[in-house]
Design a protein that fits this description.
The chain is α/β, with parallel strands linked by helices. The protein is 25% helix and 19% strand. The protein has 6 helices and 10 strands, in the order E-H-E-E-E-E-E-H-E-H-E-H-H-E-H-E. Helix 1 crosses helix 3.
């Protein structure tokens, strides 16, 4: 059995969880990283002897709009798959059933699904997750899913989906005078929203905060009071830890 880890993961939460699962099944697993625009045209064919783990973050209860067409190059042929939705401790809403619909449309057979908590993009919410215990549980789940004959659980969610997909959040990163023009943000932007002057185009930005997390001099920021006020309230509202959910 060849295992492939597929993910869209701007800030790394989804990548960590999906790769922990893949490594538990096959130390020589392959990866398909759909995070950058250059990977949009990736075309991969899988057979019934393969196993694919597909991971997506949750944006407002759905998977990211920009990620959906990037999944179009994945083609299964009765290929078993495990679905992983990572979210920031609020809820995953219809993200997993949306992934289930896409997977089946592309020829995959779902053997398991997981809704996993990671650090939220905004505020200070579950900042250390996924932690070691999370990743250990992810790995054990993957082994059970891979060994199962068929999925018996019903994945939670609504059809039609309750929420409309959104292109991104409302907070768009700023750039301070500390910017040294290293280009890390521009090269790493999932939607090419950063120009040659390293300013963010708010019409394109999906508010993933990848540039803020990766900026080596902290020039990318969200240092405005309207954001700080929101982040304080949001962090307080989502302070109670949610546990991961696994479906077999």
């Amino acid at each position: 059995m060849g295992v492939t880890a597929v993910y869209f993961s701007p800030t790394g939460n989804t990548k960590k969880s999906v790769e922990a699962m893949a490594a538990a099944l096959d130390p020589g697993y392959k990866t398909v990283d759909l995070t950058l625009p250059s990977d949009t045209g990736v075309s991969c064919q899988f057979g019934p002897e393969d196993l694919v783990i597909i991971g997506m973050p949750v944006y407002a209860g759905r998977i990211p709009m920009v990620a959906v067409p990037r999944l179009s190059g994945l083609k299964g042929n009765g290929t078993p798959c495990i679905l992983v939705a990572t979210y920031g401790n609020r809820h995953y809403d219809d993200a997993l059933v949306e992934m289930e619909d896409i997977a089946r449309e592309h020829g995959f057979t779902v053997k398991g699904a997981a809704a996993l908590v990671g650090r939220h993009t905004y505020g200070e919410i579950q900042t250390e997750r996924p932690d070691g215990e999370d990743l250990k549980a992810d790995a054990e789940f993957a082994k059970r899913a891979a060994a199962s004959e068929a999925m018996k659980s019903t994945i939670p969610g609504s059809r039609p989906y309750k929420k409309e997909a959104v292109p991104g959040g409302k907070f768009k990163p700023l750039t301070s005078d500390a910017c040294v023009g290293c280009g890390i943000c521009k090269r790493g932007c999932p939607v090419q929203a950063i120009n040659d002057q390293f300013q963010v185009n708010p019409e394109i930005c999906i508010s993933c905060f990848r540039c803020i997390r990766n900026c080596p001099v902290h020039a990318k920021n969200m240092d405005v009071e309207v954001y700080h006020a929101f982040a304080r309230e949001f962090s307080s509202r989502l302070a109670e830890r949610r546990e991961n959910e696994y479906y077999l």
